[in-house]
Amino acid sequence: MSHEQSDQERMESRAHLLPEEAAVGSDDPEAQADAILTESDIREEDQNAAPDTVLERRTSEQTATFSEPPD
Known about the structure:
Number of strands: 0
Number of helices: 4
Structural class: mainly alpha
Shape: elongated
Mean pLDDT: 77
Largest sheet: none
Order of helices and strands: HHHH
Low-confidence stretches: none
Distance between the termini: 60 Å
């Protein structure tokens, strides 16, 4: 978040729907923006908070089985 930008300014800026969002519409763009920014702030503070963001560290030997090609 920019230090010059207040939470209200961030929400108002994000409340302008993206083209994909505008295509399906939004009953409450401000509430949608608030929810998106809140989740973004949580993810920024705790990078393990978002699902599927934890990277597994495995080698190819741990993930693949080796087999000889047929002769």
